[in-house]
């Protein structure tokens, strides 16, 4: 069963058609990486199953149910902007999240931030960019939802933290069957944990590839990188040709 299905989705922001017939699916319990050049529509797309944007045309379903406005109860979402109340302490942020959601696993969230060297007594305004991201990640994964949508979760993190975050995501998916849709530019880290890679180009899917052979053997990173970079380079070439024709 698919946890998320995106079918012929169209979305226009202002005068720009950001998504143009975008279609793909995310299997239940899987990890899917969503990639693309800057401005390809990744952030807009992940907001739709999260209930923060509505498609102009096409359908998006979570667990078989169409998504409208409002975050579905089975979805948690990490925004690229990482909004946190800067005057609060980290522990207060987590306590507030628990007050809003009876299902929030504050123990999991506290363990997450402390494991990455963030003190519960730290004020959010004093956190580094990477620490800020870790607190926002803790809030997202602490929701205990079936589907976790993460927009650029590795941004601002150092290489070791990137690796450990990916390991934690893989462990949570394996142990609890949670589904992850991850928008990212960092193929080197996610290629070892994701089940599928979807590349967006000009608002549509340019590449949708599994990361394992039918026998269960994982494709090596070099092979995946070649396919992804090929799709991205093709996108850039096509876009440049389109500008020249205009």
TrEMBL record:
* PROSITE patterns given in the database record: ABC_TRANSPORTER_2
**InterPro entries on file:** AAA+_ATPase, ABC_transporter-like_ATP-bd, ABC_Transporter_VariousFunc, P-loop_NTPase
Q: Give every ABC transporter domain span.
A: 4-227
Q: Which Pfam families match?
A: ABC_tran
User: Which UniProt key words apply to this protein?
Assistant: ATP-binding, Nucleotide-binding, Transport
Tell me a Gene Ontology molecular-function term this record carries.
ATP hydrolysis activity
Q: Which SMART domains match?
A: AAA (SM00382)
Question: What Gene3D superfamilies would the database entry show?
Answer: P-loop containing nucleotide triphosphate hydrolases
Write down what this protein is called.
ABC transporter
Instruction: Supply the source organism for this entry.
Output: Rhodococcus rhodnii LMG 5362
